[in-house]
Amino acid sequence: MRTVRLSASLLAADLGRIEDEVKRLEEAQVDSIHLDVMDGHFVPYFALGPDVVQAVRKMTRLPLEVHLMIQQPDRYAQSFIEAGADLLIVHLESYHDPKRTIALIQEMGCRCGLAINPMTLVENTYSLLKTTDQLLCMSVNPGFMGQPFIIEVLEKVRVARAFRDKHHLHFDISIDGGVTDETVGPCVTAGANQVVVGRPILSPKDASEATRLLRARANEVGAGG
Ligand code: DX5
Ligand code: ZN
Question: Hey, which of 147, 176, 182, 202 would you mutate to test ligand 1's pocket, going by the most ligand atoms within 8 Å of its Cβ?
Answer without folding.
Answer: 176
